[in-house]
Amino acid sequence: MRATAFLLAARTLQTRPRRTLVLLLGYGLGVAVMIALLAVGDALLLQAQDRDVVAGGDLVLVPAGLDPEVLKTGAVTAMFLAIPNARFLVRQLLLGPRYAEAVAAASPEMIDKLAYVRIRGEVHAARASGTLPSAARAVHSALAIADPGWQDREDDRAWLEPAPQDLLAGIDRFHEPPSGPDGRTWAEWWYFNFAGPDGLYGYVSLIADRERRVHVSVTVHGPDGRVLRFGETHTGTILPFAGPVIAAGPHRIELRDGVYRVRIAPMGPTPDLFTADLLVAPTPGWFLPPFEQQSGTFRSGYVVPALRAAVTGTIVLGRQAHRIDGIGYHDHNWGVWQDVTWEWGTTSSPDYALLTGLVRHATVREQEMLVTVYGHAGGRAGVLGVLRGSAPVASDWKPGPRVGTIRLRVPGRLRYRAANDAGDRLDVEIVADSIVATPLDVGASGAAAREAADTRSARAVFLQIRGRYSVTGTVGGRSVRFSSPGFAETFVPIQGTP
């Protein structure tokens, strides 16, 4: 039979060579595709069984900038890879409001990691797995142990649901300044803003340099429209190396029981003396974890412990006391900054919060603006979406504050759009109500651009804008539409009229 088959094939090739070759080519391609598919399937099966490869499941998280294929070259146990801000990913994203209808539980686990065990003086290699007992049971994990004694410990509970004090103290901490000439422009600052119902609002900043000097800066926009500024520098300071306390001379900020107490002692000359005693209580779940970006000698870190906070207390301007019962915000920056400008903004309502940020530096290329939306859903509070935005476009220019001998022209409106690959879209418009302007020498050395000695030496104007946000779009498949007051910061070139 085999001889007959070969004879027929040979005669067919002789009589119809082209048709026979096309048939053989098609058959060969089919066999090759089948072999490739079988090989891929076999490789996937081997990877699923490999204890050193992080893969499988519906979602695979790997460190930013890493190709999953790289995991196979040295494997996780050899490369010591880790997911940054893993707690934030679990609490705010997997267990956050965006996936409230899809994700019922999440269990952070480490599976078959290489460990060494000492038994009677001898060291043995072993495989170890770890998880949180309650989380493993909630997802019916293979690592769950049916033992009544296997319960969460205090540090297990703190990993998933930390107390407000522990959470804030962990992310709102001081950072050791770098040594050497690259760290000469190091600075770290704590920023609070507040707004009362009668039109009074303001900014409080404590800025520390590498020598542990702290500059206390206060700007207050009074109910009558006046803008008052106060500033002091103190060398006798206490920075939070070991605890959540910041002190600069008589001024002090403390974190106690998850609430910040901001106490500013009397500053400025009479009759415009300023003092404040405020309690800042962050909204649970609405925070941005610490992160850093670095390029060459440029290093910038940022964390937002309180994207929205209830602010209560008293502010005294001159001889008049103002009772504050309003909304505030707190963030914390650190880094080596020089020749830096930025775009920043935040607004919040009881249902939504928005945070935007963009840092400009000569060594940072193709930087996009980060736009983060927070909300509530399914009894959860946290991140609804992270988007990439265009820089705000200024329009409706109008006469603004007078700086020195110049009446500045400032934008009356800012607009930008943001989107991501998941289909989220936002349109944001800010209509300015009031603006505080500071002429800056952007090229000066220091933590950032410093205030110019006079308008003639200034290269740009730093604008702190108080206005009304209008936010519309779609995030996580749901319509987002809200309007609320908020703050924004931007830089514009010097332009105005005498």
Low-pLDDT runs of 5+ residues are 51-57, 72-79, 442-457
- Please identify the oligomeric state: single chain
Proportion of residues in extended strands: over 45%
**If helices are DSSP runs of H or I spanning 4 or more residues, what is the number of helices?**
7
Outline the structure in words.
There is one protein chain. With 498 residues, this protein is α+β, with helices and mostly antiparallel strands. It is built from 7 helices and 25 strands. Strands 3, 4, 5, 6, 7, 8, 9, 10, 11, 12, 13 and 14 form a 12-stranded antiparallel β-sheet that branches. Strands 15-16-17-18-20-21-23-24 form an 8-stranded antiparallel barrel. α1 packs across α2. The termini are far apart. About 6% of the residues have low confidence.
